[in-house]
Design brief:
By secondary structure, the chain is of the alpha+beta class. 19% of the residues lie in helices and 27% in strands. The chain contains 11 helices and 26 strands. It has helices at 55-60, 66-75, 81-84, 88-102, 109-113, 140-150, 245-251, 300-305, 319-323, 343-351, 379-382; strands at residues 30-35, 43-48, 51-54, 116-118, 122-125, 133-137, 165-168, 174-176, 179-182, 185-188, 197-200, 204-205, 208-214, 233-240, 243-244, 265-267, 272-273, 281-282, 307-308, 311-317, 329-335, 362-364, 390-393, 396-398, 406-413, 421-431. Strands 6, 7, 8, 13, 14, 16, 17 and 22 form an 8-stranded mixed sheet that branches. Strands 4-3-2-1-5 form a 5-stranded antiparallel sheet. A 5-stranded mixed sheet has the order 9-26-25-20-21. The structure holds calcium ion. Residues 135, 207, 209, 241, 364, 366-367 line the site of calcium ion.
Amino acid sequence: MNHTHDVTARSWLESANTPTTDFPIQNLPFAVFRRSGTQEVFRGGVAIGDQVIDLAELSRGSLLAGKALQAARAAAQPALNNFFVLGPDVWRVLRHALFALLQEGATQAGALRACLVPQKEVEYTVPARIGDYTDFYTSLDHAVNCTRLMRPDGDVSPNFRWLPIAYHGRSSTIGVSGQQFHRPMGQMLPAGAQAPVYQACAYLDYELELGIWIGQGNEAGEPVATDEAENHVFGICLLNDWSARDIQVWEMAPLGPFLAKNFATTISPWIVTLEALAPYRCAWQRPESDPQPLEYLDGPTNRKAGAIDIQLEVWLHSERACREGRDPKRLSGTSFRHQYWSVAQMVAHHTVGGCALQPGDLLGSGTISGPGEGEAGALIELAHAGARPVELGGGEQRGFLADGDTVLLRGWCERPGAVRIGFGESRGTVLPVRS
Ligand code: CA
């Protein structure tokens, strides 16, 4: 924690001081943007209130110098990879320089104001070149809920409590908020049938996850220790891992999901840095009745502050609700602090066998479900595999997603003694199957 987390700090930009903003001066998340409807080059930006600081414009002026200028130039490019590679000390220098320029009373406020673009006038793109995407499965509540849909007294697989389970995913179809995709076709085995059929996915679902952006990578053969792992993480965004459940069930034995997961993944444009998340860290705990982590997945830093209290919500806006002027319906809400494995443990486990992570690699946290009613991070859990459809209001129900549905993920952090910071949103829409 440092002066950039000071609850009394305010910006000369009034929209950054409203209690409901996602982007106060204590947040300063990064995205890649341009003015909507133009052919401008995409470049890095930082959110403040209802504005974006154009880092390309800022680096051309004289407001920054030294390491902060070097960092801003790296972050001003159409992808943030060259900024990620610079590491936590340089990320911090730029954050602190921007904080100084934005703070109430800053003498250079006028010059910085010339680098601002209103958020409502911009469009975003995926903020980095994603070399590899890995999707984890690290929420015990989600794993238990999914297991019990098939076997009511069943337990999670024996490895779940020993390692953060994951599979290598697909980066080519990751899109930024606003993504639209066609309902996938695929192969599935209808109940009671002897042979599979090829048809449109009928059990389309979302998964509430966080996206973990790798900053500095590691060399092949050089594992990252759990308590060093967060030095390799730049920040966190929202991530919707759309899932075709009927395709998944038929295809996933024995190698895991394939086409059920690789047709679309939607992320939020803004990456909230680990430094901004510092006030919301909590102890990472493991019940004494559960296996304690093997040594390579354990460490005092992770025990002390490995969890992060990020509030998360899923909302659904059907095409009909949109047309009839009804608001989106909140489906569920939970916190990332319940996750069974921490971000540091995911990174440590990913690299322990010698795998190299690279700047811009993206890790999905796995579906985030909490322990209570209404805390499930996927529709299959909320609606009990379609058996108890969720009421949307206006006479609409959902067992699984319908064409025209827009799924919104929202995330924020708040606690007494800290300023609320937010992640913005991830929004994605299901289009009918391609004719
Ligand atoms: Ca997933």
